[in-house]
Write a structure and sequence with these properties.
Elements: H1 6-20, E1 26-28, E2 34-37, E3 63-67, H2 71-82, E4 86-90, E5 102-105, H3 107-115, E6 132-134, E7 140-142, E8 154-157, H4 158-167, E9 174-176, E10 179-187, E11 190-197, E12 202-208, E13 210-213, H5 220-225, E14 233-244, E15 258-262, E16 265-270, E17 278-284, H6 288-291, H7 296-304, H8 311-322, E18 326-334, E19 340-341, E20 344-346, H9 349-352, H10 361-378, H11 383-412, H12 417-429, H13 433-443, H14 445-452, H15 458-461
Parallel strand pairs: 3-4, 3-13, 4-9, 6-15, 13-20
Antiparallel strand pairs: 1-2, 2-9, 5-8, 6-7, 10-11, 11-12, 14-17, 14-18, 15-16, 16-17, 19-20
Helix pairs in contact: 2-4, 2-10, 3-10, 7-8, 10-11
Length: 472
């Protein structure tokens, strides 16, 4: 096997080990913590892809803790396991989330998903009917859809990507739900992490060689190691509510997306070809803290009132009141001078939340996870060098997206009448050469082609994988 690439050799041993351990599903440690093992088989057929190899490395493999089971956490756990780390994945919720709200997967995200071996598990859910822009009185006009953007970005649900990343986990990876870190003490030999089982009310302290905080905008890992949230959160003075709408909003056709854009507030209906739509409502606020003192629907009715809501907006806000789950939060960036400290590193929104305005959260989460694995493989004996190289390679891209947020905000919500007028005229303007140039300039099509569709990891890791539609 001397002529077989190292990652492929490890992959073969991993496959054998995974088959032996396939029937091991659950166990309980002496603290009573229930530990679940992923039991999804992974294919060895992806070109150049080394597969699930956590248990094949043996007892000498380094141990990693990944905190958070969102896109970034799941992808990171899968990639670290592939790189030879014995990985433990913890999640504060009692179960894994499903579905979620609207996300976009640009070319950079597709390339990362392909390299991670999970692209075939997701698909574009875009619906066929033309998107429209509506008013409260029921009048409508053609709208600009995300599928009109260059590179044909996929529109889907966050849960689609999370499910695909979950399916990429190796069979032997250890998962603990209802678990959160309460203390992280680092030394030259490792990081001692105290883990609280919130159901049993018991704690255990374990040693890890690497701790990855992938626990979102209000990261517990970041607070424990880097300091309080206010040091890193940058408020943009907007709120949003996102939820799944069962059926079709009144006034729309099945599968039809729609926007209602008014000054400092907007409604977005994202329709899918094979799933119920999701709704997002956005509005500007002068006091973010005060927004959380009342229920989401109370705030929505107040913000979008006192004018009559109209057929579609009224139906959407009524649905928000009855939604099984609603994401109600402020729009905030995370700005940090460093994403790593000794043996702790942050990935995804915990490190660099670029906001949903930019549309790169999922793509960056996948790319960041993949690149982290690349650098750990490249510097197997020097963790500090691996993390430094990872941050140095990724930061220019993240910084660029963080600076783009104020331009991309204009796509989702208008601050003045001129911006409202522009979006109403955009579909008509695009019919003419000069008008199309103007619209493309405002949307920053060139930036999308260069940055959002670029393969971030490919030039560093090796050949760019071919994605499902045949493009690189």
């Amino acid at each position: 096997m001397t002529n077989v690439p190292k990652r492929a050799r490890v992959s073969i041993f991993a496959a054998i080990s995974a088959r032996i351990n396939l029937e091991t599903r659950f166990r309980c440690d002496d603290t009573g913590t229930s530990t679940r093992f992923a039991t999804v088989r992974r294919s060895l057929e992806f070109p150049g892809k080394a597969e699930a190899m956590g248990s094949a490395i043996g007892a000498e493999a380094k141990r990693a803790l990944v905190v958070g089971m969102g896109v970034s956490g799941l992808a990171t756990a899968a990639r670290l396991s592939e790189a030879g780390w014995r990985t433990v994945l913890i999640e504060k919720a009692p179960t894994r989330r499903s579905d979620g709200h609207f996300v976009v997967l640009f070319g950079s995200g597709k390339a990362a998903a392909a390299r991670l071996g999970m692209l075939d598990a997701i698909h574009d859910r875009a619906a066929k009917p033309q998107k429209i822009d509506i008013d409260r009185d029921g009048s409508s006009r053609p709208g600009v859809d995300f599928s009109d953007l260059p590179g044909e970005p996929w529109t889907l649900l966050r849960g689609d990507v999370e499910n695909a990343a979950f399916s990429a986990l190796p069979d032997n990876l250890e998962i603990r739900y209802s678990t959160t870190p309460t203390a992280i003490d680092q030394s030259p030999d490792g990081a001692d992490v105290t883990l609280l089982d919130t159901v049993a009310g018991t704690s255990v302290t374990e040693r890890f060689d690497l701790v990855v905080g992938a626990d979102g905008l209000r990261s517990t890992v970041r607070s424990l190691v880097f300091g309080p949230p206010e040091k890193y959160l940058r408020r943009l003075d907007y709120m949003f509510a996102a939820f799944q709408f069962h059926g079709t909003p009144a006034g729309l056709e099945p599968g039809q997306s729609a926007t209602l854009i008014e000054r400092d507030r907007s409604m977005w209906i994202f329709a899918y070809g094979d799933h119920d739509p999701t709704a997002t409502l956005i509005y500007r606020t002068d006091d973010v803290d005060a927004e959380f003192r009342r229920s989401p629907t109370e705030r929505l009715r107040s913000v979008f009132g006192p004018r009559p809501l109209g057929t579609t907006l009224g139906d959407v806000i009524d649905a928000a009141d009855a939604a099984d789950e609603i994401l109600f939060d402020s729009v905030e960036q995370v700005r940090m001078d460093a994403w790593r400290k000794d043996r702790v590193v942050l990935v995804g929104d915990a490190a660099w939340c670029v906001t949903f305005y930019v549309g790169m959260g999922v793509s960056l989460g996948l790319a960041g996870a993949d690149l982290l694995g690349v650098m750990l493989e490249r510097h197997p004996a020097d963790l500090d060098a691996a993390l430094a190289a990872w941050e140095q390679a990724l930061r220019p891209h993240v910084d660029r997206y963080l600076e783009e947020v104020f331009d991309d905000r204009k796509i989702f919500v208008a601050e003045n009448r001129l911006e409202i007028l522009f979006w109403r005229l955009a579909p008509w303007l695009r019919r003419f050469r000069l008008g199309k140039r103007l619209v493309d300039r405002v949307i920053r099509v060139d930036e999308i082609v260069k940055a959002k569709n670029a393969d971030i990891v490919g030039p560093i890791a090796g050949p760019t994988p071919v994605v499902a539609d045949g493009s690189a």
